[in-house]
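Hi D.,

Good news: the full-assembly prediction came through. Inputs first.
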Amino acid sequence: MAVTGGVLVLYLVLHMVGNLKIFYGAEDFNHYSHWLRTLGEPAVPYRTVLTAIEVVLALSIVLHMWSAISLGKRAAHARPVKYKSKKKSHAQGYAVHTMRYGGIVIALYVIWHLLDMTFLVVNPKGRDATPYERVIADFQPSHWYITLFYIVAVLLVGLHLRHGVWSAMQTLGLRSPRNDRALRALAATIGAVVALGFISVPVSVTFGWVG
Amino acid sequence: MTYDSFYKSGGPIADAKAPAGPVEDRWTTRKFQAKLVNPANKRKKKIIIIGTGLAGGSAGATLGEAGYHVIQFCFQDSPRRAHSIAAQGGINAAKNYRNDGDSVHRLFYDTVKGGDFRARESNVHRLAEISTQIIDQCVAQGVPFAREYGGLLDNRSFGGTQVSRTFYARGQTGQQLLLGAYQALMRQVDAGNVELHARHEMLDLIIEDGRARGVVVRDLISGEITSYTADAVVLASGGYGNVYFLSTNAMGSNVTASWRAHRHGAYFGNPCYTQIHPTCIPVSGDHQSKLTLMSESLRNDGRVWVPKQRGDTRKPADIPEDERDYYLERIYPSFGNLVPRDIASRAAKNVCDEGRGVGPGGLGVYLDFADAIERLGLKAVEAKYGNLFEMYERITGENPYEMPMRIYPAVHYTMGGLWVDYDLESTIPGLFVIGEANFSDHGANRLGASALMQGLADGYFVLPTTVGNYLAENNLGEVGEQPVAEAEQRVKDQIDRLLSVDGDRSVDSFHRELGHIMWEYCGMERTEEGLRKALDLIPALRKEFWERVKVTGKGEELNQQLEKAGRVADFLELAELMVIDALHRAESCGGHFRAESQDEDGEAKRDDVNFAYVAAWEWAGEDKQPVLHKEALEFEYVKPSQRSYK
Amino acid sequence: MKLKLRVWRQNGPKDKGKMVEYKLDDISPDASFLEMLDVLNEELIAKGEEPVAFDHDCREGICGMCSLVINGTPHGPEKMTTTCQLHMRKFKDGETIDVEPWRAKAFPVVKDLVVDRSAFDDIIAAGGYITAPTGTAPEAHATPVPKPDADKAFEAAECIGCGACVAACPNGSASLFLGAKVSHLGLMPQGQPERWDRVVNMLEAHDDAGFGGCTNTGECTAACPKGISQDFISRLNSDYLKATAGGKKK
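Then the structure:
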């Protein structure tokens, strides 16, 4: 979980930084989108690097989910009889309780997001538009439910990172009493920055600050 | 004065195993004289061990490692839970790391003197010699003892000794030492050398041709009765403080293994010697099931007092200084609040008997830290005693930083136990008894931090030599069917008998009543009159037990009532022997204070002319008078003197 | 105090079991939780019913034998406190209290509130020791141990093996128990020679026993009556990775 999670965190940060290009205008954003596909040219053919990244990502997501599912299965196996009374949680932090359902929501969102932006099958603008137009179309006030879904998913991503980054360090045995505070702060910062960075785009579109 | 109507006199008994010669050479001599078992034959020799505390756990680990086939039992769900785990203070060893004048001889001297000259010099000297090896052994196992900044082991002074020889691991020394032994034991379990049976209770001894050859146990989960045979049997089943119902012992601690052996001919040594610890949390009501010890170290800074006025119900803070009686400081000006355990306990009882006790039922005295907080500051007191204060608050709901603690003495340890010779072998050949279960090393009073030392000395170092000698000397064949069948039948009969009474009183109600009788008449202060009264009450209660006890459930299942009932039945027999022992010993010594034997200041008066012996009691049969055998005690090295703490 | 109890009753390992309600009318707030159950049992015996079976021994918070999930929390509502040291003054008059056994596949219910925790012994037997046969030990002062290491090792060694960590863990993992022992021994110089074998063997025993995996929720530490830190799980993970991926285990 920790290793694949790490790959995904790195990707999310880059993805978010890329998204922010939208504030530089349509040309910059579309250009960035094109640059991603031509990255590595002419040394390698069109879309090689991006495809490689996509493969690593897909693999990471699958392994991440597979780990989560097997941990969940193992947990169910480890406690075949449940408690009758509602079990109270005493662990610190809210984020830790969002990991499982949050993960599922995020996974569903990623599927929709791929259909929307990569395979272009559910996007209001579809194939004929530029990436910039597609984004703008998605987050129009009339499509408020898309925006809402996006924001909920991204907030969950933030929470996921809030616990996940710290947890990954714990799993890898890199957390110690000495670096604990720093790690918690780092995890909180990454979670918050990623969530806010992603959310800034649809909010700006909805309120007409961009587009 | 004679109490011959309560007991019969038997012939003298002597420890035939301690070699002659200078006391410091005896253990070396004995080790050399001891016969060895051929390593190739060890695997064929089976040893049964009952109990997995410090003594049993260390013995099992050591004998398993040596190559014997060990079969070990404990009634708890894991060997790690034996009550040694609750020992707080520390473990003594004559390492002299402080260069403060300690030595094997000084530890020997202190222990004999502290035991009020009722222990064997040979045994105590061996204990002092081995003490240093114990520390080495435990450190090698990874026991996290307290250390100084230089990385070396820290020591503290404990229990009124003038040297710092106590090794400790915060307030959980017993836990850490026991886990060390437990881990070593589990290693042998994994290696297949020790066959471990948790949640099994020994209910009888199998004897063939006069030798201990096995045990009958009850599987506490299924209720199944099974027999195990062996070449030797070791009892490491702990003390019998629970005869008082309320004690600092664990709820399950019991005398059954020892008592069953006693009924088969193992003599019981000095049963009346019990240690009452002065600093326990007082009883809060009828629901009370056990008493909790507060570390003795609290007396280093706390001041003990009661109101001068009888029946003073004011809050402690409202009682002005000149209406308080700091009685320990008043009576014992030179030792003050730090007098030994037995003296502090008795003094508390005396002021409460005068009607000056505090708290519910008037059974408590104040242990006040107000002065210490003023003198050292709240921070310093918190650093020293914070965890103890928390524990106190958890149990009583009172904040000891704001109001004085209430404390009262409670039964803590039993110095008496099955009689053993220098080899730790009882009067039944092949039956060895180690740890608190035997009577050997503490005389009439145990010093602080010496119980852990004795348990581990017996298990790690003494028993492996002496049991080896026994096995080398005796090549025993298989046990016949008859003694096994007979023992099993006895166990089944006893269980049937308990279940068939089907009366109307719970086991606990009998246990409570017995505890009350023992505490009242055979507790901190014993009188002829009170003991005689107890001798009427106990047999009557026992009779009632067998007529009215209600044991629910069946024998063939997990049945905690049945477990308790069997233990209480044995306590009801032991109690009588304790009282007889206390009655016959018309002197005061150590934990045994006879009101008739005190000097004009109320201090214990020992009678070395008439009582310098170990009382070893032989079972004569149900409702028959026990037979007293005396083992004379001689003191060549530490000359008896009267203790004085004034 | 008046109380309504809902207690898990189960005749034996194969019985299905159910929650059974009992009313208690006169409980002292100074009684401990187990003493309250003693009172219940006395009343049941007087009525000729089977008393409730539960594990307990020292009743001073150190043997680790008492268990009980009280109102959904192992060892009940008070932090850093075992059930035996929990007192009724922590509950409200008239309160309904649920009492259940530890729930884990590796801790099967034996009867009522009693579970079998021998899986913990198996984990220790797999490597939770330092091999030091009696009599072979060098002089205690031959190996100084830095005080911070000794103190840290002690904090790990405080574990009482009660199993509350497993009972509290949403995954039914015993990582805290395991991490505490691996850390205690791994922090001492005496524990170094077997350090890498130990962690691998103990973890295997843990997994074989049917405990779940750790997802770092922190419920274990919160429930631990000794407050054993999650730091020791990080240490466990670190040692395991060094032993396996790092190739330290020969």
